[in-house]
Design goal:
alpha/beta; Dihydrodipicolinate Reductase, domain 2; 3 domains; eleven-stranded mixed beta sheet; six-stranded parallel beta sheet; binds L-homoserine
């Protein structure tokens, strides 16, 4: 049997401690799967004294993660520090320069520097395993990078952030306020160190950028993703969605269109009958549309120590077996720039909510503006009735038939300028399930 594979882990937070614990507890069971034993020989973290639930005996301690990364005591460097730059980037570069394979859960790092790091790894025949970076325990990277080889993929989409899904689910099911749900998500360890990365959609965008690169053979290009978070979603939207037969989810979508590749992270309305609409709480889900295998949907834990560590360990086992492809599926030098299709060209149906002053001609004016922009309406619903002449606006919800984003934006700008509504219009895209 081959000599043991020696692992250095930098970052002993929830995921790092879980990964080290699994490798110790399941050491014997892993040997036949990996073809050799896997041993943690070095670690690096901020504070040495903490009890992290695994045995540090015999494991070398490094204060500097880059020193661990380049150390002769390891074969594989596992980066679980996080952050797009700083110590995580320095350590991963040091590992690749020293000829060590890398395993990471760091989507921010790869979404920002993935092309350059993949070039470095490819040049030395090294692996960068990042199954843990996208949708936690769901093996979606392996699926799109290896299992989908026979397919032309037209769309990959999913619920890629557990914190947002948890917040939206609790707001919808329990009528709770956004802030209360966010606090609970933080207490449960789902949220990023800075939760704005979750709620403003950046975390989902990092994951989508990696998926899109593999699926479309293009460079990782975070800047080509259109982004909207969930902080503007209100109880009124959730209630209206429910009445209209939809659920609101933060979706990451990358799809091939006639104009190019459209990539977006936005709140979206999914019909309640869609499988992904039923994915609740902290769970993630990813669906892949391929021309050969049809649609595959995977659902599972997208955050949390053991689920994410499970993906880390699976990458380590692949490296132990010598099973790895170029980090982004094809050699980094063959990746093409993204042929981007902007949001103005997005085609689909829309939900619109307006606070309309209750006066004669207001609804007719709104319908006229929609018609002038070539938009056909599926439904228009006004709730409640104010006193005649009252200045209190009433909510009006509209569902459109398929149109283009440039048309809906044009119509909403004109409606706003007409003075029939209070505040800004709310607009949510309806996703084809
Ligand atoms: N904060 C992330 C989430 C953790 O909520 O999904 C995994 O990336």
């Amino acid at each position: 049997m081959s000599r043991p594979l020696r692992i250095g882990i930098a970052g002993l937070g929830t995921v790092g401690a879980s990964a080290a614990g699994i490798l110790q507890r399941k050491a014997n069971a892993i040997v036949p799967k990996a073809g050799r034993s896997i041993v943690v020989t070095g670690v690096s973290a901020r504070s040495r004294g903490k009890d992290r639930g695994f045995d540090l005996e015999g494991i070398a301690w490094f204060d500097d993660p880059a020193e661990l990364a380049a150390s002769d005591e390891i074969d594989v460097f596992v980066e679980l520090i996080g952050g797009a730059n700083g110590p995580a980037k320095a350590a991963v570069e040091a590992a690749l320069a020293a000829g060590k394979h890398v395993v990471t859960a760091n989507k921010a790092l790869l979404a920002t520097h993935g092309n350059a790091l993949a070039c470095l790894a490819d040049a030395s025949g090294l692996a960068i395993g990042f199954e843990a970076a996208v949708a936690g325990g769901i093996p979606i990277i392996k699926t799109v990078r290896e299992a989908a080889s026979a397919n032309t993929i037209n769309r990959v989409f999913g619920i890629l952030n557990g914190t947002c899904n948890y917040i939206l689910t609790r707001m919808e099911e329990e009528g709770l306020e956004f802030d209360e749900c966010l606090k609970d998500a933080q207490a449960l360890g789902y949220a990023e160190a800075d939760p704005t990365a979750d709620i403003e959609g950046h975390d989902s965008a990092h994951k989508l950028a990696l998926l899109a690169s593999i699926v479309f053979g293009s460079e990782v290009d975070l800047n080509s993703i259109y982004l909207e978070g969930i902080s503007a979603i209100s109880q009124e939207d959730l209630r209206a969605a429910d009445e209209l037969g939809y659920r609101i989810k933060l979706l990451g979508v990358a799809q091939r269109t006639e104009q190019g590749i459209e990539q977006r992270v936005t709140p979206a309305m999914l019909p309640k009958s869609a499988p992904m609409a039923r994915v609740a709480g902290v769970l993630n889900a990813v669906a892949v549309d391929g021309d050969a295998f049809g649609e595959i949907t995977m659902v599972g834990a997208g955050a949390g120590g053991d689920a994410t560590a499970s993906a880390v360990v699976s990458d380590i086992v692949d490296i132990a077996r010598g099973r790895f492809s170029p980090a982004l599926g094809i050699p980094a030098e063959s990746l093409t720039p993204v042929s981007r299709s902007g949001m103005q060209a997005h085609a689909g149906a829309y939900y619109v909510r307006l606070n309309v002053y209750d006066r004669p001609g207001a609804l007719a004016g709104i319908a006229t503006r929609m018609a002038e922009s070539g938009i056909s309406l599926e439904s228009i619903m006004q709730k409640g009735r104010g006193e005649t002449g009252s200045q209190t606006p009433l909510p009006v919800t509209i569902i459109t038939h398929n149109t283009m984003e440039e048309h809906i934006r044009e119509a909403l700008a004109r409606i706003e300028a007409d003075g029939h509504i209070e505040g800004r219009p709310q607009m949510i895209r309806i996703e084809k399930a």
